[in-house]
Design goal:
16 helices, 454 residues, mainly alpha, extended
C-alpha cells in the first residue's frame, strides 16, 4: 500500500510540474450509460423524497438539516487559514442543533438559509462561477435550489483543487528532481523488484551496443578485438531512450519512465506521421522532381495534402493503406494541376500508377524509402541527445527531412526535455545498474549522485 501511494504521489507531482495544462475536470457519467441512468434514478428518488417531506404538514426537516450540515462542511473547506470571521458566521448561521430546535417549533426559515448559503458561495467562488450564482438566486423551488447548490459546490471543489494545483506548480518545478528521486527510493525499498524492467531495458541496450561494436570490428580487420568491451554508459542510455520512440506500448514501459509514458507514446505517434509525410515528399520528388522543381514550396503543399489524411493514424480503426491510396491520388492531382497551369503535359498513366504504387508501399515492412527516412529521423534524435544544450543549437537536419524540419525540431525539443529530466531524476539508479552490468567485478557502493552523461 505504501509503495502504491508513493507511486501515485510521484505520478501526480510529475504531471502537475511538467504539464502546464494539467487540471482536474468535473466529469459525469454519460446520460445514456448504465451508470448514468442508475445515478439519475437514485438522485431523482432522493430529491423527490425530500420534496415530499418538506410538503408534509408540518414539514419534516431532518433530511434537509443533514444537507445543511454537509453544505456547512463544504463551505468551511473553502476557507483559507485565518478567515475566522466568516468561519464563525457560517458555523453560527448553519448551526444544525439550532435548526433542529427551530424545526421542532416549525420555525425554520429554509429559504433564508438557502439565500445565506448562495451569498456565501458568491463570496468564495471563482469569477467563472458568477453566472451559476445568478442562476441560483433566480431559482424559487427550494428542492431544485438545494439540488443546484450541490451541483455548483461540486464545481467550486474542482475550482479550488485547480487553484491549489496552480499555486503548487512553481514549488514542484523547483523541487521535482529531489522529490521524485526520494519517492522512487521509497518505492524501491518497499518493492525491491521495482527496477526489474528498467534493468532489462538497459541490458538490451548494452547487448545492442556490443553487437554494433562487434560488427564494426569484424568489418575492420585491423581493429583491436578488446575494443568491443569498451562501452560508453551515456551511449547505452541514449540508445535505450531512442528505442522508446519505436516502443511497442502494448508492452510495459521501464518503471523509471512510467510518468512520461503517455507523452513518449504521443511523440512516437507524431514521428510516425512525420515519417510518412517525408516519405511521400521524397518519393514524389524522386519520380517527378523535374516537373515540379520550379514550383515554390511544392513540398509544403504535399505536406498540407498529407496531414489531414493521416489524422488519427494511431487509432486501431485507422486504415493506413487506404489513407496512402488517397494521398497518392491527391498528389497526382496536385502535380497534374501544377503542370497544366504552366502549360506542360500531365503525367502519363504509367507514371501516375508508379507514383501511387510507391506511396502505397510505404506501409510495407522493410520498404527502402521508409527505412531510409526512419534511419535519418533516428540519427537526428541521436544527435539531439548528444548535444550539451539543445535549446541553444539544433543539430543539422538530415537530407530528406527539410519538409518536416519545424515539426521535427519541436518534437525533438519535447523528447530531449523528457530524456534530460529523466536522467536528472534517475541517474543514480541507472549508474548502479550500469556498473553492475558493465563491471560486474567492481564492488557495489552507494548510488552516484550525478547522472552518467559525461
Amino acid at each position: 500500500m505504501a509503495a502504491a501511494k508513493n507511486l501515485t504521489d510521484l505520478t501526480l507531482a510529475h504531471e502537475i510540474a511538467v504539464n502546464a495544462n494539467f487540471c482536474i475536470k468535473h466529469e459525469d457519467f454519460p446520460q445514456n450509460s448504465f451508470a448514468g441512468t442508475v445515478k439519475q434514478i437514485v438522485h431523482k428518488a432522493f430529491w423527490d423524497h425530500l420534496e415530499s417531506e418538506l410538503n408534509e404538514d408540518p414539514p419534516e426537516y431532518e433530511h434537509a438539516i443533514k444537507l445543511f450540515e454537509e453544505i456547512k462542511e463544504i463551505l468551511l473547506s473553502f476557507l483559507t487559514p485565518g478567515a475566522n470571521r466568516i468561519q464563525n458566521q457560517i458555523c453560527e448561521v448553519l448551526d444544525t442543533d439550532l435548526i433542529r430546535q427551530q424545526a421542532e417549533h416549525n420555525a425554520v426559515d429554509i429559504h433564508g438559509l438557502a439565500n445565506y448559503i448562495i451569498n456565501t458561495m458568491g463570496k468564495l467562488c471563482a469569477p467563472i462561477r458568477d453566472n451559476d450564482i445568478k442562476q441560483l438566486k433566480a431559482t424559487d423551488n427550494i428542492v431544485e435550489l438545494l439540488r443546484q447548490i450541490f451541483h455548483v459546490l461540486d464545481l467550486m471543489k474542482v475550482d479550488m483543487a485547480n487553484y491549489t494545483i496552480q499555486n503548487l506548480r512553481p514549488y514542484l518545478q523547483r523541487n521535482l528532481v529531489d522529490y521524485e528521486r526520494t519517492k522512487f527510493q521509497e518505492i524501491l525499498e518497499e518493492t525491491p523488484s521495482a527496477l526489474d524492467l528498467t534493468t532489462e531495458w538497459i541490458k538490451e541496450s548494452i547487448e545492442d551496443e556490443l553487437s554494433s561494436i562487434s560488427d564494426e570490428s569484424s568489418s575492420s580487420p585491423g581493429a583491436d578485438s578488446s575494443s568491443k568491451r569498451i562501452i560508453s554508459p551515456t551511449l547505452v542510455l541514449n540508445n535505450g531512450y531512442l528505442k522508446l520512440l519505436q516502443w511497442d506500448y502494448r508492452k510495459t514501459i521501464p518503471e523509471t519512465l512510467l510518468t512520461d509514458e503517455v507523452r513518449l507514446q504521443e511523440l512516437r505517434e507524431k514521428l510516425n506521421q512525420l515519417k510518412i509525410i517525408a516519405c511521400v515528399c521524397l518519393i514524389t520528388n524522386n519520380m517527378v522532381g523535374a516537373a515540379i522543381v520550379d514550383v515554390p514550396d511544392f513540398a509544403d503543399q504535399l505536406k498540407r495534402i498529407s496531414v489531414p489524411l493521416l489524422e488519427g493514424m494511431n487509432k486501431k480503426t485507422f486504415d493506413l493503406k487506404e489513407a496512402l491510396n488517397a494521398i497518392g491520388v491527391q498528389v497526382c492531382s496536385k502535380v497534374n494541376r501544377s503542370l497544366t497551369e504552366r502549360g506542360l503535359p500531365m503525367l502519363t498513366e504509367e507514371t501516375q500508377s508508379n507514383l501511387m504504387g510507391q506511396i502505397a508501399h510505404i506501409v510495407e515492412e522493410n520498404n527502402p524509402v521508409s527505412s531510409l527516412i526512419d534511419k535519418r529521423i533516428q540519427f537526428f534524435m541521436r544527435s539531439l541527445l548528444a548535444l550539451p544544450n539543445f535549446q541553444k543549437c539544433m543539430p543539422t537536419m538530415p537530407g530528406g527531412l527539410s519538409v518536416i524540419q519545424t515539426e521535427m525540431e519541436f518534437v525533438g525539443s519535447q523528447y530531449a526535455s523528457i530524456v534530460n529530466f529523466n536522467k536528472q531524476v534517475y541517474g543514480p539508479f541507472y549508474a548502479n545498474i550500469l556498473r553492475k552490468l558493465l563491471f560486474p567485478d567492481t564492488p557495489m557502493g552507494k548510488a552516484e549522485t550525478e547522472t552518467p552523461t559525461s
